[in-house]
Specification:
The chain is mostly beta strands. It has one domain: Jelly Rolls. Helices cover 12% and strands 35% of the residues. The chain contains 4 helices and 13 strands. The strands form 2 sheets. Strands 1, 3, 4, 6, 9, 10, 11 and 13 form an 8-stranded antiparallel beta sheet that branches. It is globular, with a radius of gyration of 16 Å. The N terminus is likely disordered.
């Protein structure tokens, strides 16, 4: 069993430039990056919902289920590269907030990068509801999920008007937001924002996040 786990661990270390100890939730960020999570508690984060739904243990931020709103960084960020790992439970739905204010739904007043159990979701998903999509704005080009219960590696680059989303080494979104303003700008004013909070969504079942690093650009 240990031999089977080595390639996956090595791939994660290669993508993130991390040592094995850092994958376990170590405090040291890759060169040029800052860690958004101290590996032990939610210092530096605040929830728009019930904070009790969120927790931290053993190098992991987790959400137990619905009711927690969004867990957002206290700081705001503009242009950056964000790296993180996430693990879904069966039927889970979540998201990554970008450039959002604290008040309002980040999917509209900011941007939401969708995370969902694409294969196990009970209903039909729109193209813009699949993992990696900018929710309701830019659909992901493909699916690149790992099996439920396995860690996925995601990289998001927000630089000016360009948003790039890479999941498990596959480019899912490479978009110029200016191309979507005419159609979506009124309902999604967040695509016009230059900075805001980063965070995660509480929706239904457990989702875990770890190795959350950000490099300002």
């Amino acid at each position: 069993m240990q031999r089977a786990l080595i390639p996956a661990a090595f791939a994660a270390m290669t993508m993130f430039g991390l040592s094995g100890s850092l994958l376990a939730g170590g405090a040291k960020a890759p060169e040029g990056f800052e860690s958004l999570f101290n590996g032990k508690d939610l210092t530096g984060w605040k929830s728009t919902g019930d904070m009790k739904v969120w927790g931290a243990e053993k190098g992991v931020i987790y959400v137990q289920g619905g009711g927690g709103g969004w867990l957002l960084t206290e700081k705001e960020y503009g242009d950056y590269e964000l790296r993180l790992e996430y693990k879904m439970s069966k039927g889970a739905n979540s998201g990554v907030a970008l450039r959002t204010p604290f008040k309002g739904d980040p999917a509209y007043v900011g941007m939401e990068i969708q995370l969902i159990d694409d294969e196990g979701w009970p209903g039909k998903l729109e193209t813009w509801q699949h993992t990696g999509s900018i929710y309701n704005v830019v659909p992901a080009k493909k699916l690149a999920n790992k099996a439920i219960g396995e860690w996925n590696q995601m990289k998001i680059v927000a630089k000016g008007r360009k948003i790039t989303v890479i999941n498990n080494r596959e480019v899912l979104v490479d978009a110029n937001l200016d191309d979507y303003v005419e159609e979506h700008g009124k309902r999604h004013p967040g695509i016009l924002r230059e900075k805001g909070h980063v965070g995660f969504q509480s929706y239904n079942t457990r989702v875990e996040f770890r190795n959350i690093y950000l490099k300002p650009l």
